[in-house]
Design brief:
98 residues; 2 helices
Length: 98
């Protein structure tokens, strides 16, 4: 059985969310683990926004890591965020950024 890395999530009240157009970066969102900042593109709507926020929040629990691990884990992070977003959306959870 493969060993699993432990997740180490920072305190929720320390995480900052910034809304910023990310067209030049060609990204829906970005995470900066050292400063606990998540940037999300304001053009994201609905279930996709929820999925992207879950994705970036999950990344915060996976740091620190090296670039090789990053590529391997990206698939796992994407699958987990898609699964959670799909089911949370189905259960009526919606994402509103104020």
């Amino acid at each position: 059985m493969a060993s699993r890395k432990k997740l180490h999530f920072p305190p929720s009240d320390k995480i900052k969310l910034k809304v910023k157009k990310l067209g030049r970066e060609k990204a829906d969102a970005r995470v900066f683990p050292d400063s606990l900042i998540i940037e999300v593109d304001p053009r994201l709507k609905g279930k996709r926004r929820l999925e992207v926020l879950i994705h970036e929040l999950y990344h915060l629990g996976r740091f620190p890591r090296d670039n090789e691990t990053l590529e391997k884990e990206e698939h796992e992070v994407t699958k987990v965020s898609e699964f959670l977003a799909e089911n949370l959306w189905r259960f009526g959870v919606r994402c509103v950024i104020e």
